[in-house]
Amino acid sequence: MRMIKLLLTMVCVVLYSCGLDHNGDNTPVDEYDRKAILVNWADNLILPSLSNYKSKLEVLKITTNDFVTTPNTVSLTVVRAKWFEAYKSYQYVAMFNIGKADEIQLSKYSNTYPTGVAQINAKIASGDYNLEGASFDVVQGFPALDYMLFGLSSDTNEIIEFYSTHADAVKYRNYLTALVNRLEFLLNQVYDDWQSGYKTTFISKSDNTSSGSVNRMVNAYIHFYEKDIRTAKIGYPAGKFSDRTYPDKVEAYYSKNYSKELVQEALNAAHNFFEGKYFGGNQYGPSLKSYLNYLDKKGNNEEGTQLLSNLIINQFNIAHHAVDEMLPDLSQQVIIDNTKMTATFNALQRNVAYMKSDMTSAMSISIDYADTDGD
């Protein structure tokens, strides 16, 4: 009798195993096609974003050369506009901090702010245009250009004089040119690497390991959202990590009216990436959203339990609205009504929890960067 009961138990176990696709803890086995996500990211988001940024930098270089050749109101107005266009396009590539971009620290040398005004002035005075060095992140990139194009004086005519009649006009022109050339040099290394083989390598690493491309990209993406958008653009200026506010720590501080728009662009980039939306188009491909839906991952908010992907998208929309409510100049927003900055931070923070904890847990992805800002 005991033998019959044992056989029946074994049969039940086998039948249960055949009826469910599960791991040892009875959770579904993740067999999602990660390669499809990688193909969509590479072909429809990463490479088009890099190509767009490359073209914007090429135009910025041309207009910078025009300005240093003939410094006047017209040429300054044009180069300022092209600086901002390039700056906006950079927001769409900043999250792709993998491969060559990670190796050469593209984001560090392209967008570290606040910029080092004293160091920049010292380099100009000494005629030192070398920008290659671990400590030179604060004297280059878009923030340095912000200072050079808008911050030398509050008077446009006086800024033009720095590049035309000033005793060190040649040095100012040379430094401005070096800044743009450096941005282009950094980007070209990343762009060329993707074109010459890294794309194939990126797509081939579709395994669910710490070195797999999905895992690496998710880490870079969440780092971009948490540290670059939530913390740097909003949290630090708003005083979320200190006992005082820092209106001078906003992005694009010297140009005054662009900091909010840069946040909007970066948030759009992050939102589009989550949904797998083609860069510059309205089509959607395999994405973090579709991956979570495949896993049928649920989450909770004040309204109850629902798909985690819906919670994340809804929170993106809440964050978009919070940003839209702020002034164009976030420095002034901090000074006049910092509560809107902190409200935006809180709206952004909710998705940090959803993505950094709930999403990565569902996908069995470990976060590999350190938290140092007390969040």
Summarize the amount of helix as a percent range.
55-70%
- List the total number of helices: 15
What's the end-to-end separation, in Å?
A: 62 Å
- The run of helices and strands is HHHHHHHHHHHHEEHHH
Structural class: mainly alpha
Describe what this molecule looks like in 3D.
Helix content is about 65%, strand content about 0%. It has helices at about 1-20, 35-70, 75-90, 100-105, 105-110, 115-125, 140-150, 155-165, 170-205, 215-240, 260-275, 290-295, 310-325, 330-335, 340-360; strands at about 300, 305. α2 (about 35-70) runs antiparallel to α9, α8 packs across α9 (about 170-205) and α13 packs antiparallel against α15. The chain contains 15 helices and two strands. The chain has a two-stranded antiparallel ribbon with strand order 1-2. The chain is globular, with a radius of gyration of 24 Å. By secondary structure, it is mainly α.
In short:
The protein is mainly alpha-helical. Helix content is 66%, strand content 2%.
Please specify the SSE layout and strand pairing:
Elements: H1 2-19, H2 34-69, H3 73-90, H4 100-104, H5 106-110, H6 117-126, H7 141-151, H8 156-164, H9 169-204, H10 213-238, H11 259-275, H12 288-295, E1 298-301, E2 304-307, H13 308-324, H14 330-337, H15 339-362
Antiparallel strand pairs: 1-2
Helix pairs in contact: 2-3, 2-9, 3-7, 7-9, 8-9, 10-11, 10-15, 11-13, 13-15
